[in-house]
Amino acid sequence: MPVPYPSPDLITELALTLAAFEYTRRSLEQTAPATCAEHGGAEAIMLKLGGRMAPHAKGWWSVDFTTAEGQMIHSQMMQEQQRRFRECGE
Length: 90
Hints:
mainly alpha; single chain; elongated
């Protein structure tokens, strides 16, 4: 059974937070590699924009794209992802 977040055990909570952060970092690198590279990597984007653990069965990391810079980066990521799909469809 998954460990609920937040966990009553601080070590488990830390492990879940780190795993969620790493999962999000890998996902961003895979889905928008050029945008991530332009901004110093997904981890640099995540650290610059900030974020938090969001409640879920295992928890996930939520990047804060609400700032002007965050919206610009998010837009670049979406354009990169859409470009790949459009190129495959043509």
